[in-house]
Structure formats: structure tokens, C-alpha cells
Design goal:
The complex is a heterodimer of chains A (about 350) and B (about 650). Chain A has helices at about 10-20, 100-110, 120-125, 175-180, 195-210, 215-225, 230-240, 245-250, 295-305, 310-315, 325-330, 340-350; strands at about 5-10, 25-30, 40, 70-75, 80-85, 90-95, 130-135, 160-165, 165-170, 190, 255-265, 265-275. Chain A is an alpha+beta fold and about 350 residues long. Chain A folds into two domains: about 5-60 and about 85-210, no CATH class; about 215-255 and about 275-350, no CATH class. Chain B has three domains: about 35-115 and about 310-500, Rossmann fold (3-Layer(aba) Sandwich); about 135-305, Dimethylsulfoxide Reductase, domain 2, CATH 3.40.228; about 540-654, Barwin-like endoglucanases, CATH 2.40.40.20. Chain B has a seven-stranded mixed sheet with strand order 4-3-14-13-12-5-6, with helices on one face. A six-stranded mixed barrel of chain B has the order 18-22-19-21-20-23. Chain B has a five-stranded parallel sheet with strand order 9-8-7-10-11, with helices on both faces. The longest helix of chain B is centred in the N-terminal third of the chain and has 19 residues, at about 60-75. The chains are: A alpha+beta (about 350), B alpha/beta (about 650). Chains A and B meet through helix 7, strand 11 and strand 12 of A and strand 2, helix 1 and helix 7 of B.
Chain lengths: ~350, ~650
């Protein structure tokens, strides 16, 4: 099998093999909660798995950068200080992850490598096989087609599945993905013209369901050229509830805080947890001075970061994958998510 | 809210898209509050004061000691020497059993909830007028309101959901009239911002009603208008209101005009109008105003008090307020007493119980022992120094909490409780939404859920109470609570639960119409108002008002133990008007001592035009914890709420 070749496998056969994997790996997949909402979590059997879902509101970056994690524990009670590292996790398989989250991982990979190389993040990345599911059920707030975040991807996954009903059409994205297919008794055939046609139809149908509201280009230009009125940032800052929800659910946001939690004088843990540039504590300096003390400055900085310097100028793409989660979680509903802000910037510049 | 758990550890909180109220949002406290669950300072074993130090003991020893001390004191001083303070945060089932324990096993009438300090007047007036001690509107009404009056509340800071809906309404063009001396972050989006002198809300509200009547703008078909006008409203002319509140007559007329033109009026209010000498009169005046516009029981209208804690309403419903038993039923009514006594198989104390502040005031006298569940009284009650001294006077202080709060540190015995993530039960939100909370993890080793602790304590006090689960207790309390009738344990487990009452087939927002029935149309008396008892003078020239900022919650017990929330608001500040600051030669960032007639706190100055001249704004802050130490504890006469919203104060350089 060649990377880039599309294959077709019977859906039930594929799922049966997934089920067998659960003995040796932690298989994480979409499952329904009480009330019907879908979230991703470890699966014990295929019974918990659902294939009919809009994406989880909680971003899947949490499986690589948890909201709260213990970096290490220390114990000073003995003769020698002891440093206790977290246990090695079982190999994991992330099944059904949507394209936007896969693209988000590409953003995070960029952040956590090089000077900011993060052992814990990369241990989880290396330990996890990504079998994504091309999106056939976008949410009403999705706009990934505006950000090259889906609904289908060309890379970033180990395997990408397209649900054709009775079969999965599979894009192979990596050697690990190819090995996964080869090692399992799954009769696969090369995709025929019929399969390819069906895939294209599904892609077009998915595209048509998305309302392309987030035309980022003009907003990027305005911000990069500093052509946004201060009054607009002032207004948006007043609207912001500083809940931090937009950054918490953003697949591209990586910021965290590290705190020590002593348990008595001799032991304790060092904990890492998500932080948010929308919190005033994020940029406060030890002296007490805060360069971004007001919500206005924090909102402004977030969009400069997303739409200009950190991403566009460095990496050539915006810091957004179009998952639309910030639209749902924003307390100032419809005013400060990225789609609303680019619209307001565009109108303001006219 | 969903919690993500791995190997018995809560890692994360996540919003719920299919929840009808939050709709996928969480406020900053929702996102970060879970950090307290595994905080190293969590209490994990009972602590008993031995030789003036708190030392760990076993649960068995702790419970038998508590039972022995209480029994001894009751034998020496009578059964009503014990007071019980309920929690606004624990589950309904625990609250119900706490009330039952107090009234039957301990047989004391002295039971109250800290809601006394926030919204006692709101509940009293609403119950008097409608029969129900709860909001006469739901959050969804904010989306349907024709006009909205926000008075004595900062919705954005106090209830992000209400604040969010309010902002959206304002952006849609719904006229929002805000009444608050201080400018808030969202004030700029509201149609009108009236900034009365602190403590003069009564004149302002009544003047709005006066104008509606004078202009014949009231709703049609109302009875009792002549009496309303002649018995009190006539003297609240715009000119009088201007002289009292400082609000220009034209502004009052503009506000009344906006209200008159709207299809309905929704009134959101907070402790800004309840913690005053005129607390009850203010809420009465709001009721009359809402009634004049025909908004009570109408979609998009009514009164919505912004209760402050997750289960404030549940505490009222389950019978933790001094005057009402389970189902908000009046314990002074013979039939109600008979029904409750028959169900509980025990007699109820005959006398009327002391309210919360009264219990503190009588500590060491009539009250010899106090059982406090999940409330940091030392910091939540006014005149903190006096409160701490009162707690020290008790013969036995029993505190049940997650952390060693300032109150727990003074206790003779501390029982370690389980957090929200470790309990089963139900909560009732400020809009009467009854929802289940599920256990995400087992209680931390050594901790027990409130429900279990209360049952074990009853057992130690020789009451034959079997240890029951939350569902069984829910079924029992439902029998005594008509308002929770027709609601099953399963239904409240669905996202969003149920808005009680559930035995009507009305639309959610208009439930109140049926509840009110023929009571609609009853205007309440118009009070002439009392002066607030702590006027500024030459020595204390400023009027000090307090408020709760966005990152704070109650006394900060939980906020300070979430590392993300704790760093949000590190500096305790005092806001002063620019002109006043210039006169006093003060600058932002300078330290200053704020003094009232009761105490002093050290704060950092913030110079701003957000507060009017002559007024100081003191954000309640957890760093010194003593914001309330400045505020007076004298009681508002009708609802026994301390007048802790405003006082006279002065600033001194450090």
C-alpha cells in the first residue's frame, strides 16, 4: 500500500478491528452522554461508540495538553529528594477526530517544538494514532472551509476515514497509519471511480451546509496594517466577560500556567493548567504592572495574535481552524467570537 | 457543566451545549472552579479542639463528641440554646435533612440560611404578594422583555448568564434602564443609566410609579389604583424624587416613558437595594411598579432577584429560612405545622426562631452552640470583628466545610465535607430550575458528603434515621413540598432539569401566571422610607458602598483556592471619584486606610469617574477578607437583613 492511495474497507470489519485494539490500546472515540450530547472519551467496547455526531464542544487538544496535569511530584521526606514523574500512558488510538481538531494539532505541534519543545506533549503525540473522520455533519457554527481546517484534509492524520455508509474510504497519511492497516486482517480494495465520486459528493454537500461567514482576509489586512479604530477595541473590551472560554476551546490556543501545590513542607506537586490571554493574571508581571490590564487590551491582543503577527506573519496562516467553538462558548454571544470580530472589523473598515 | 475525570482525579470542566440555560457557555468560575476539588488544603479528617489546638480525630469520635456536647448544653440551657446555619451551596436533600434535624432532633427553632444577608426582603415580599418566595420571572424572560430595569445589581459580575442575556437584549435595541450610583462595564450599552445617591432607591422607584399613574400610562384593568395613589404614591413626585435621589426629573420621565411604551417590564435586582434600611420597602415598590405595567405573570416581565449562590433558591424551598418550612410553607400556620409534624412523626418547636444576624448577636447568651454548614460567617457577616468575638463566645461551635475557613478555624469541631463533584443530589437555581448533580468522583478519603454527615450526626444524637441516598430523601421531601410535585428524579437528571412547578402544562416563562391566580392585581403598601442609620458627617464625609467583582464569590473560600481565579484579582482596591482624589491629593496605586465607624481596612486607591463624587466603592475582596468589617450590622426592621450595603466612611493616608 502506498501513502496517498485511497482504500476502501467494509465499515463493520474496520470497527471489529477497532474493537480488538481496545485490549492493547486506549481507544478514544465519540460517545453519547445522557441527553444526547457527544463527547470524546475512552471506549470499553463498540457499544459506546457513535458515528453520527457533530463535533465535541470540548476540543480534542485536551488529550495532548490536558486542562490540568501533574508535571511531577516531589518528596523531600527521605535522605535524598525524590522526583516522581507521571506514569507512562498506554498507547492510544484517537478515533473519529474531526479535521478541524487534526489541523489544530498541527498548530500545536508547531508551538511545542523547537525552543518550546515539550516532552509531555510529544510523548502523548508519539503515543497516539490519529484516525480522523472527514466531517459529514458540520455544526451550525462551523466555518472550517474558510480556514483550510476541513472538512477533508490532505495531511496531519495517520488515517482519514470517509463514511460511505457500508464502507470507509481511507486516506493514508503516515507510515504508522499504513502499518495499522497492514497488521490487521482487513480486506482492503483500492477506491474505484464510484467511491471517489461519492467522496466528492459528500464533500460538496458538507461545504454547502456551511455558511461562510468568516472572511478572514480583509480583517487580517486591516489588523496587520493597524487600521482598526481604538474605539472598536474599546467597545469589544467592554462587552467581554473575561470567561476565557474562547481560548479554552480553541484547538490552536496553547497557553498554560504552571503552579506548585505543596502538600505540607516535604511533598507536593507541580501542576500545569490551561491559562487564557483573556485573563488579567496572564500578563501581570511580578512588580504588579500589567501591560494588558484591561479587557480591551486583551481582546485586541488575541485578535492581533490570531489574525496577524504570530500566525500570519510567522507561519502564513491564521490561528484559526474554523471549528466554530468560540461562537458557541462566548458569553457575549455573537459579539466576540472570531467570526463576529472579523465581520465587525470588515464593516468598520468600509 | 461536565467534569472530565481520569483515575479518580477531576482534570477539567467543560460546558454543555444542550443545556437550555448555559447553551454551551461557562463563566470564568465555571471554567476554573474545579481546581479546588483536589486542593492540598482540603480537610480530610475531622478536627477537634484539644488544648486550644485543632487535632485530627476519627469520625466516630467526632460525631459522638458533637452529640455529647450538644446534649449536655441542651440539658443545661434548654433545647433552643442551639442554632443551625444552613448552606446555600450544598444539595437540596442535605438542606432538607438539616432543617429536619434542627426542628425535630435538636428541636430548636433557630435555623436560618445566609440568604438572610442577601435577599431576605425579596423573598418576603414575593411570598407576601404571590404566595411564592422566589423569582416572578425566569432567565428566558430577559430575551422576551419589552423593557428591562436593572437596579442594585451588576449582572455581568454577579450572574454571567443574566449579564449575557442582558447585553444581547441591549444590543438588539431593547431599552435597558440601569439604576446604580456606579458606572459598570456594560453601562455604556444601556439606554439610560440613572445614578441616584446611595440609599435613595425607594424615592426613585416610587417616582416612576407616580409618573406612570399621573400620565395614565398604567396597564388596563388594574384594581386599587386610587388607594395606591392616595395612600402613598402621591407624595413621590418627580420633584421630590429629584430632591432625594439627585436624579433629574426629565431623566425620571424618560425612564417612565420607556417603561410605558414597552410591551412588558422585567426587573432584575440585586443586593444593592435589599441590604438597606428600606430593603423590604424597595422590593415592595418594585412589585407595585411591575404590577402597574401589567408585567407580573406575563412573558418577558416580572421580578427577577439575582440570588447569589448556586442553591440559594433550594435553601428556601427545602425550609432553611427561619420563617418557612419545607416547600416555603409558613410554620406559624397550624395546618402546616400539623402536616409537617405528622410526616416527621415529631413535634416542631412552637416559638419563632432567631434569624441569622440575631443568632450571632445572641451568641454566648441565648445561643450556646452553633452548627454551621458550609458558610464562612466570620467573613460574610457585617462587623467582622464583632462576629468573630461572638463566635468565640459560644460554648460549642461545629463547622462543616471543605476548608479551614476563618469560621472553621474558630470551631471546637470541624467536619470535612465533600465538594460538589463528590455529592449526589439536586440544586435549584435562581429561576426555580431543579437539576441533578451527579457524583463525578468518590469523596476524597476522609471526607463525607453533607447528606451523609447530617444523617450520621442525627444517628449520634440517638435519632433512628436510617442512612439514605439522595433519591430516597428527594422522594420524602417531595411529599412535604407541593412546589416540587410532579417532578421525578429521572426528569431532573436531563440537561436543564425542570422548572418547578411541573404539574401545569404552561409554557415555562408564563408559569407564574397560573401560580398567581387571583392574587394578581394586589398592590402592596407604599412605605415612606427610613433614613439609613449611618449618615456621612464631618468626620466620615464619604458614603461607602460595596459590590462584588467578577472574579469573586461570597467570602472567597473557593475562589482563593483556584490558582487561576486567585491571581485574577490580587489587589484589594477602593474606588474614588477623580475630583475627590484631587482634593485629597490621592493617586491611583497609593495605599490608603478606609475607616468606618466600625473598623478599618487597608486598600489601594483607584481614581475613576465610574463612582460619583462623595462616594467610595469598595469591591468585596478576599485578600483581607474584611470588606464587611466596615459595614453596619443593624437590622432592617421587616426582613431582619443587616443594612450592610452602605455606610459613612473616610480615607486616611498610610
Amino acid at each position: 500500500m502506498q501513502a496517498g492511495t485511497r482504500l476502501v474497507v467494509n465499515k463493520q470489519v474496520f470497527l471489529d478491528n477497532l474493537s480488538l485494539c481496545m485490549q492493547k490500546m486506549t481507544v478514544i472515540g465519540p460517545q453519547k452522554l445522557r441527553g444526547g450530547e457527544v463527547t470524546f472519551g475512552p471506549l470499553r467496547s463498540l457499544r459506546g461508540l457513535t458515528l453520527d455526531y457533530v463535533n465535541d464542544l470540548d476540543p480534542l487538544k485536551r488529550f495532548f495538553l490536558p486542562q490540568r496535569e501533574v508535571l511531577f511530584a516531589y518528596d523531600l521526606s527521605g535522605k535524598k529528594p525524590r522526583l516522581l514523574q507521571p506514569e507512562q500512558e498506554r498507547p492510544r488510538l484517537l478515533f473519529g477526530i474531526r479535521s478541524c481538531d487534526v489541523q489544530g494539532l498541527a498548530h500545536m505541534d508547531g508551538f511545542f517544538q523547537g525552543a518550546c519543545y515539550d516532552e509531555l506533549y510529544w510523548a502523548r503525540r508519539r503515543n497516539t494514532l490519529i484516525i480522523s473522520m472527514a466531517c459529514n455533519r458540520p455544526n451550525e457554527s462551523c466555518f472550517c472551509i474558510c480556514c483550510n481546517g476541513g472538512p477533508w484534509l490532505e495531511s496531519g492524520f495517520d488515517l482519514q476515514l470517509t463514511d460511505l455508509g457500508e464502507e470507509f474510504l481511507i486516506d493514508i497519511g503516515s507510515r504508522a497509519g499504513r502499518v495499522f492497516l497492514e497488521e490487521r486482517p482487513m480486506p482492503a480494495v483500492t477506491a474505484s471511480r464510484r467511491h471517489e465520486t461519492r467522496r466528492r459528493e459528500l464533500m460538496e454537500a458538507c461545504d454547502a451546509q456551511m455558511v461562510p461567514t468568516a472572511y478572514l482576509a480583509k480583517a487580517c489586512i486591516q489588523i496587520t496594517n493597524n487600521r482598526v479604530r481604538e474605539e472598536l477595541w474599546e467597545e469589544m473590551g467592554s462587552e467581554c466577560f473575561s470567561c476565557g472560554g474562547c481560548t479554552h476551546v480553541c484547538p490552536c490556543c496553547t497557553c498554560f500556567d504552571v503552579v506548585d501545590c505543596p502538600e505540607g513542607a516535604k511533598s507536593g506537586t507541580r501542576v500545569r493548567c490551561w491559562d487564557s490571554c483573556q485573563y488579567s493574571g496572564f500578563t501581570r508581571e511580578a512588580s504588579g504592572h500589567n501591560p494588558r490590564a484591561r479587557a480591551k487590551e486583551r481582546v485586541k491582543r488575541r485578535f492581533y495574535h490570531k489574525l496577524s503577527y504570530a500566525y500570519i506573519q510567522q507561519d502564513g496562516h491564521p490561528g484559526c481552524v474554523g471549528c466554530g467553538r468560540c461562537i458557541t462558548v462566548c458569553e457575549a454571544f455573537g459579539l466576540l467570537d472570531i467570526s463576529a470580530v472579523v465581520k465587525r472589523l470588515r464593516r468598520d473598515g468600509q | 457543566m461536565l467534569l472530565e475525570v481520569e483515575k479518580g482525579v477531576v482534570l477539567a470542566a467543560a460546558p454543555q451545549r444542550d443545556h437550555p440555560v448555559s447553551r454551551g457557555t461557562l463563566c470564568i468560575k465555571g471554567w476554573n472552579g474545579h481546581q479546588i476539588i483536589h486542593h492540598p488544603e482540603r480537610l480530610t479528617q475531622p478536627l477537634l479542639r484539644i488544648n486550644d489546638r485543632l487535632k485530627p480525630v476519627s469520625w466516630n469520635k467526632a460525631l459522638s463528641y458533637a452529640a455529647q456536647r450538644i446534649t449536655d448544653l441542651q440539658q443545661a440551657h434548654g433545647r433552643d440554646c442551639v442554632g443551625v446555619v444552613g448552606s446555600l451551596k450544598t444539595v437540596n436533600e442535605a438542606s432538607y435533612l438539616l432543617g429536619k434535624l434542627a426542628r425535630t432532633v435538636l428541636h430548636t427553632p433557630h435555623l436560618d440560611a445566609p440568604l438572610r444577608f442577601d435577599h431576605a426582603p425579596s423573598l418576603r415580599v414575593l411570598r407576601e404578594q404571590s404566595g411564592f418566595a422566589n423569582a416572578a420571572a425566569a432567565l428566558a424572560d430577559i430575551e422576551k422583555a419589552g423593557a428591562i430595569l436593572v437596579i442594585g445589581a451588576d449582572a455581568k459580575a454577579q450572574n454571567a448568564r443574566a449579564g449575557s442575556l442582558l447585553l444581547q437584549a441591549a444590543k438588539r435595541g431593547v431599552p435597558v434602564i440601569q439604576v446604580d450610583p456606579r458606572e459598570q462595564e456594560h453601562s455604556r450599552f444601556f439606554r439610560l443609566h440613572l445614578r441616584p445617591r446611595p440609599g435613595t432607591d425607594l424615592a426613585l422607584i416610587n417616582a416612576l410609579s407616580h409618573i406612570l399613574l399621573a400620565e395614565d400610562w398604567q396597564a388596563e384593568g388594574l384594581a386599587g389604583l386610587a388607594k395606591l395613589r392616595d395612600d402613598g404614591l402621591e407624595r413621590f413626585t418627580p420633584a421630590y424624587a429629584e430632591s432625594v435621589s439627585g436624579i433629574a426629573q426629565d431623566d425620571l420621565r424618560s425612564a417612565a416613558g420607556l417603561i410605558a411604551k414597552a410591551s412588558s417590564l422585567l426587573i432584575l435586582f440585586g443586593t444593592g437595594i435589599t441590604q438597606q434600611a428600606n430593603g423590604t420597602a424597595n422590593v415592595r415598590a418594585l412589585w407595585n411598579l411591575a404590577l402597574l405595567t401589567g408585567s407580573i405573570g406575563r412573558e418577558g416581565g416580572g421580578l427577577l432577584p439575582l440570588l447569589t449562590a448556586n442553591n440559594s433558591q433550594g435553601a428556601v424551598d427545602t425550609g432553611l429560612m427561619s420563617e418557612w418550612g419545607p416547600g416555603q410553607r409558613d410554620l406559624q400556620e397550624a395546618a402546616v405545622r400539623r402536616a409537617i409534624e405528622a410526616a416527621w412523626g415529631a413535634s416542631l418547636p412552637a416559638e419563632k426562631g432567631l434569624t441569622l444576624q440575631e443568632m450571632i448577636d445572641h451568641a454566648g447568651g441565648r445561643i450556646r452552640a452553633l452548627y454551621v454548614v458550609g458558610e464562612n460567617l466570620a467573613w460574610s457577616a457585617p462587623e467582622s470583628a464583632k462576629t468573630s468575638a461572638a463566635l468565640d463566645k459560644l460554648d460549642f461551635l461545629l463547622v462543616q466545610d471543605l476548608f479551614l475557613t476563618e469560621t472553621a478555624a474558630r470551631a471546637d469541631l470541624v467536619l470535612p465535607a465533600a465538594s460538589f463533584a463528590e455529592q449526589e443530589g439536586s440544586y435549584t437555581s435562581l429561576e426555580r430550575r431543579l437539576q441533578r448533580v451527579r457524583r463525578a468522583i468518590a469523596p476524597l478519603r476522609g471526607c463525607k458528603p453533607d447528606l451523609e454527615i447530617i444523617q450520621l450526626l442525627a444517628g449520634a444524637l440517638a435519632a433512628p434515621w436510617p442512612l439514605r441516598k439522595a433519591e430516597e430523601v428527594f422522594l420524602e421531601m417531595q411529599q412535604l413540598m407541593p412546589c416540587y410535585g410532579g417532578i421525578s428524579w429521572q426528569t431532573i437528571g436531563h440537561p436543564g432539569g425542570v422548572l418547578w412547578p411541573a404539574h401545569t402544562d404552561d409554557e415555562e416563562c408564563t408559569l407564574y401566571r397560573k401560580l398567581l391566580g387571583d392574587r394578581q392585581g394586589a398592590f402592596t403598601e407604599v412605605s415612606t422610607g427610613l433614613p439609613f442609620g449611618d449618615e456621612p458627617d464631618a468626620d466620615y464625609p464619604f458614603t461607602l458602598i460595596t459590590g462584588r467583582p467578577l472574579f469573586h464569590r461570597r467570602t472567597g473560600t473557593l475562589v482563593t483556592r483556584s490558582f487561576t481565579l486567585d491571581k485574577e484579582d490580587p489587589v484589594a482596591t477602593i474606588e474614588i471619584n477623580t475630583d475627590d482624589a484631587r482634593a485629597l491629593k490621592l493617586r491611583s496605586g497609593w495605599p490608603v486606610i478606609v475607616k468606618s465607624r466600625r473598623g478599618e481596612v487597608r486598600r489601594t486607591v483607584v481614581v475613576t469617574r465610574a463612582v460619583p463624587p462623595g462616594i467610595l466603592y469598595l469591591p468585596i475582596h478576599h485578600k483581607d477578607g474584611l470588606s464587611q468589617s466596615l459595614m453596619p450590622s443593624m437590622l432592617e426592621p421587616e426582613s431582619a437583613i443587616p443594612q450592610m450595603k452602605l455606610c459613612a466612611a473616610k480615607l486616611e493616608m498610610v
